[in-house]
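Revision sheet: structure tokens.
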Amino acid sequence: MLKAAHAIIRLSGGEHAYDPTSPFAKTVLRVAKLYASNAADVRALEWLDKLDVTRLATDPGKRQGDGDREQEFASLREQYYGIRTGSLARLGRWQPCLETAMRAVSECGQLHHDNHVWFARRIALAKQRLGRPQEAFDELQQLAARKPTGFMQADIAAAAWAAGDQ
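Predicted:
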């Protein structure tokens, strides 16, 4: 697969790399996602660095769903930010994770596939790790009210513990 991806990038790069019909960005994102899903986050970031995020499409993709319903899915830019912030968080690179997640929220408009939850969670976790645990605690509590999950409760407990140490 990597051999094919390198060939696609070599052939589709250049001035038309970000045209809607070009496979360039989709190929880079697919390889980066594959690396990220296999805990090879440094490699995922290396692949994402091949992209100019400002040239990635911000309009959501659409496809026919069940029946005649049209489904929307994440734009290329939203996919980029999702992979990038996840990899940065797993690597413990909290300052760039915070900055990137905040950019994602401001640039992507309506988010898909619970990305509003994931970006908000990564922002809060980054704030906690960067010495702002009370702020993280408050944000995580608000987030858990909208999306109650076990991992969110664990995040809240960790932030509360860290806030108590200050």
